[in-house]
Amino acid sequence: MKAVILFDGVCNFCSKSVQFIIKRETQSYFRFASLQGEVGQSLLKKHQVPSHVDSFVLIENNQVYLKSDAALRICKHLKGAWKLMSIFLIVPKPIRNAVYSLIAKNRYKFYGKRDSCMIPSPEIRERFLD
Known about the structure:
- Pfam families: DCC1-like.
- GO terms for molecular function: protein-disulfide reductase activity.
- The protein is α+β, with helices and mostly antiparallel strands.
- It has one domain (3-120).
- The protein has helices at residues 12-24, 38-46, 67-75, 93-111, and strands spanning 3-7, 30-34, 57-60, 63-66.
- The protein has a 4-stranded mixed β-sheet, sandwiched between helices.
- Helix 1 links the parallel strand 1 (3-7) and strand 2.
- It is globular, with a radius of gyration of 14 Å.
């Protein structure tokens, strides 16, 4: 199975991040589901991730990665210099997650919020699981 990224479907920043990933990933490696959707909630439950998690979740090879671990592991599959971001996995997790949490905490304030989850274009619709 391909890797799955769960994202906050009502967050503008998260939706833009998904579009960013799709444009830069190699070999259509990722599938996507919103945290709010049935598939997202089912995957959270299956992998015993608390349902209140509201950040990117990466499920890859039956492993769950949260926060900065998810973001930096996603970078490994992007084209060009974005791959190099994964080097920050050597930074201690508490430091990485503090930066990640600061961005996540303010994402609605800086980027806004939608009333509903994003609707993918027909070209990428098959990549979305819910």
